[in-house]
């Protein structure tokens, strides 16, 4: 007998709804808290502030997930989507964090402006889709992964190789005595082996949360060896509110705003591909109006992120893949996941526990997480025509080459105006700009229909990595 209801709108029994929602949260939790950890530690914030960033991130994750999958008039695609902070913004935000003139408040100003920008341009993004065929998207995602690998490797080493100290009133760089110690490297390797073991022999749900289980196992080992401390966890309250503008009023600087708006376009293009893939998985047609609502939710989420002390939001691809694996298509499952994230954000003790995880533990997992981002880009590029199209190799070569400049030659652009450094020091944005321009020059701009097909292929490739 044919179902009389749409499985996307099916409301499951409460126990199953909560269990499946928790599964979505566990699958995306490690990635969700990675960005506030990266930015908080890059800014050298005290542990309690990093813990607050994690709480704010989880709280905003919950709000934005509910906006996207429950939906409001004109906002939200109403599909089973989990939202989290995008890794695409990490590179630019690290550059902003390194600038004393910008800092955290400047980051929040650029995030708020990018959110407003996203809301405004959402209906027009589908018209830009032909600028982002797989050869462009693959290059961008590859460089995102490569750029973040540096973070993961330094985590595994126990921090940065050099630390800044003030001696006789003069700041200077000195070797980090805790960097690349054998005990820390052994913990990172242990986490990596746990993750690989679970991926290889774990089944279903266990395999899906291999990274999280690796972090839990590594934390246990670190605690046993006296490398993980719980004083901040003990002193943190069980409940606290996440209030807007906790660190002060945001500051608005033109170059960071332009930079984050460019990131927003890339994020929305990626989201569009995810929406098309979800439409295929759930059997629900995703038309231009639905895409506009979904992309507008990305903008609203990013605006909410800037207000509630966190960062730009996008659809999490691992959760899109989970929909395909489980076959559960109800958007109310991800809504339950959003409620769980809200509750976690209001429990600072949980956030403090996450912040207490040593960098070496995160390093073992980070190498896997960030490497998988790069692998996604490689897989997408694997579907690009390099055999009969002699221009595509040039596009990839130059786009990746420009994207590597900030990684291998950090001072390459030092003689250029300081205001441009947040843009020029982001390999991700350099790759995006160069690949879009070169693709338009060599290959021209294809049709919207072909671009939508390519975006769906891109999303499908991302899910299978």
TrEMBL record:
Chief site of localization: membrane
Pfam families referenced in this protein's UniProt entry, alphabetically: Xan_ur_permease
Record-annotated membrane-spanning stretches: 20-39, 51-75, 102-124, 131-153, 184-202, 209-231, 251-279, 332-354, 360-382, 394-413, 419-442
The keyword Cell inner membrane is annotated on this UniProt entry: no
Cell compartment(s), UniProt: Cell membrane
Keyword hit for Cell membrane: yes
GO CC list: plasma membrane
InterPro entries per the UniProt record, alphabetical: NCS2, UacT-like, Xan_ur_permease
Entry keyword set: Cell membrane, Membrane, Transmembrane, Transmembrane helix, Transport
GO MF term list: xanthine transmembrane transporter activity
Membrane topology type: Multi-pass membrane protein
UniProt record similarity statement: Belongs to the nucleobase:cation symporter-2 (NCS2) (TC 2.A.40) family.
Protein name, UniProt field: Uric acid transporter UacT
Organism: Rhodoplanes serenus
